[in-house]
Amino acid sequence: RPAIQAEDSKMVSPPSLPAGYTFQSGKLPSVPEYRHLRAASGLTPVTEAQAVEVPKGTWFACHITSDADNGKAVAMGRVLGDGGWYFFIADMAVLPEHQRKGLGDAVLKLLLAYIKENAPEGEPCVALFADPPGRKLYQRNGFVESAPKELGMILPTGWRDGL
Predict the structure, then answer these.
(1) With contact defined as beta carbons under 8 Å apart, do 98 and 36 qualify?
(2) Which pTM value belongs to this model?
């Protein structure tokens, strides 16, 4: 699996982590770890077929491994985008037993630093969908609600059946 980082991109120093944790910068976790992280952290589960396609739409990614868990991925995040001006933070997840240790904050800070360092000149558009447990984390890192100027919208589950 190739790294999710362009050859000519500028490297960004990751934030410090608690002892026993290691950043894997520019890399997604394996497909089984990715699926487990999503499901176990409360994100919508995805199929293996969906997870296999994730690298294709990823502009940059990172994850954190735990020495206590034999180097398995325990936190992750990624950036979708065109590399120009539009960047979407996705798949922010930390396994429940590793929450409240600053791992989610560290992942988000690395993603934002990478965008800041590698996005072209001009103000980038950085967005995300914030579920209730993650809202405080995002607000601490400068995110604000976009409504009423803009409103995020999705197609509900089962929309394919209605077409």
Answers:
(1) no
(2) 0.91
